[in-house]
Amino acid sequence: MRRTKPRRSVALWAFAVSLFAWPALTWAHGGEDHGEPRKPVVVAGASPSASGTGDVYEVLVKYAATRPGQPMALRIFVADALTNAPVAGAQVELAVTATATELTVVAKAGSSAGRYEASVVLPLEGDYDTVATVTLGEEVDVVPLGDLRAGMVAALAPSQTAAGDAHDHDKTAGSWWPLAAAGLALLGLGLFGGWWLGRRRPHAEVRNA
User: Which one of 62, 160, 165, 180 is CB 3.0 to 4.6 Å from 47, fit for a cystine?
Assistant: First the structure.
């Protein structure tokens, strides 16, 4: 006497149901929204800057992270290149250039010696080559400063960033858990169905003739 092989219907049933359950479980995780690539940021509490040293003067420009088309506040510091002493009473102009953009910015004296203030609107995102011209009496010094950048976004404080990440996580979790639950339910149904078919259809015994 020998036993026949177990019927394949049990295995096929479980396999078929798992095919429906697996995409639901996989898509539930893959559907997370990871967002768009982030723009360059500056650390909270810090300011981007551009600086340079000419034959006579040193010039430092600090500015706020600003989106294109919005006024960008500039704080300009002028010092003697040899002594590093603040230079007061100078005329300070900035030439700001990029493709199809040429701007001239005239600064005014600030609240302390060697400090000047100005504002500029950069129309497009990107880097703008900046050159300072410092005039004091008969002395004129042209100082290349490098680039001002439009389009940087100020970074949030750590507490704000953590709160935003937690909020995004909650939104993501709420969007995929129903799919995961449906996938698990289908998988459980497949296992139960296989078990039930196995009980109702025991292995048949076949006698050798």
Answer: 62
